[in-house]
Amino acid sequence: MTQGPISSYWEKSALSQTDICIIGAGIIGLSTAISAALAFPNKRIVVLERGPRTMGASTRNAGFACFGSASELLHDMKILGNDKALEIAQQRIKGLQMLRNRFSDDHIKYELHGGYEIIREKEMHVLDSLDSLNKHMSQITGLESTYTVLNRREHRRLGFGQSVKAVIYNQLEGQIHSGYLIQAMEAKALSLGIRIEYGSNVLDLKENSKVMEITIQTLLGTYSMISKETVVCTNAWISTLVPQIDIKPGRGQIIVTSPIENLSFTGAFHVDEGYYYFRNIGKRVLLGGGRNLDFEGESTHEFASTDIIQQALLEMLKEEILPGKSFTIEYNWSGIMGFSKDKQSIVQRVSPHCSIAFGCNGMGIALGSLIGEQVIELLS
Fold first, then answer.
1. The pTM is what?
2. Greatest Cα-to-Cα distance within the chain, rounded to the nearest angstrom
3. Domains of the chain: residue spans and CATH
4. pLDDT averaged over the chain?
5. Looking at residue 343, what is its pLDDT?
6. Burial class of residue 178 in the structure, from the number of CB atoms within 10 Å of its CB (0-12 exposed, 13-18 middle, 19+ buried)
7. pLDDT band at 5, cuts 50/70/90?
8. Amino acid 1: pLDDT
């Protein structure tokens, strides 16, 4: 193809060819790049990101370092079977351990306040299955009781509304600062000699017997890059480049309050099989979710907010999480997650020079490092 105005001799000869090209600079993409650089220190590695910085869900999530609430895991066991659901939970736990081994807690602002789940009247049946769930989870966590019910005094200390009938506690979960996580990943990647090119929108992939030709659009024009190996890590957007892979987008809407004096809880909280989630950010409260109110409408690539979900989140804050507290909403955003049909990660080669790495289903923080390592087996 005709080279655009950015292709000088120097650029075309040195910067338009690479050994490994990773498309997407989110958690999965950067994890894959770092793992590739550690495994193949002599290979040239480039990461392409269409936005001016990481987009999608990697810096637009809730910052949960979690592996699943009791109600979510019980639901998965019912739908997917015990073995498959427990395998998913085990992968998340392993991925979180790998993340913390790769980056210091200080660099990603990791805080181990525990994970919780609030139980209302319609979720009371979850308590009946805790003993059975704990027996299954003990094989993974080594704890006799991964999930415990807070006593009445501890429950009341959290200050929730009357509709909250019980609170389940999980000591193994924590929370991070998603912005500092990406910053730490970028720094690690650069220290390993990885080149990250932002503002590089991949339009097309064309493969021949030896290489992949990647068409890239930038502010300065359109050009092509030649790569021996290409890994598509664009999460909810994977199917735009690899249409045979069935990954559906799912929008997550999030609001954050003003600082609240005497905030009565810290930690990461799940509600209703994980469809809602909230946590403290210092003295603020972050609350997100609600896509189960409009699955069809939230299956979108559009970054936006909707009245039905915003109202539901506000009502939950006022009635269940912060009853009697005064606050305003100071931040409001959305992120786009990707979902597979069976909640399984997808790490596979789709052609001789192209692979995909997907593992999120709303759990990119937990699974990113593990997915990055799994890609290496394909590139070896």
1. 0.94
2. 72
3. 9-59+180-246+342-379 (3.50.50.60), 69-81+114-173+247-339 (3.30.9.10)
4. 94
5. 81
6. buried
7. low
8. 47
Contacts of 132 (CB under 8 A, 6+ apart): none
Question: What confidence score (pLDDT) does residue 321 get?
Answer: 98
d(CA 103, CA 185): 8
- State pLDDT tens for residues 207-223: 999 999 999 999 888 99
Predicted pLDDT of residue 56: 81
Q: Taken in order 218, 241, 11, 380, is the CA torsion positive or negative?
A: positive
Residue 118 has pLDDT above 90, yes or no: yes
* Beta-bridge mates of residue 221: 218
pLDDT for residue 361 is more than 80: no
- Return d(Cα 266, Cα 181) in angstroms, integer: 20
- Quick check: 255 and 332 in contact, CB under 8 A? yes
Pairing state of beta strands 346-351 and 329-339? Answer: unpaired
For position 164, what pLDDT does the model report? 97
CA distance 189 to 38: 10
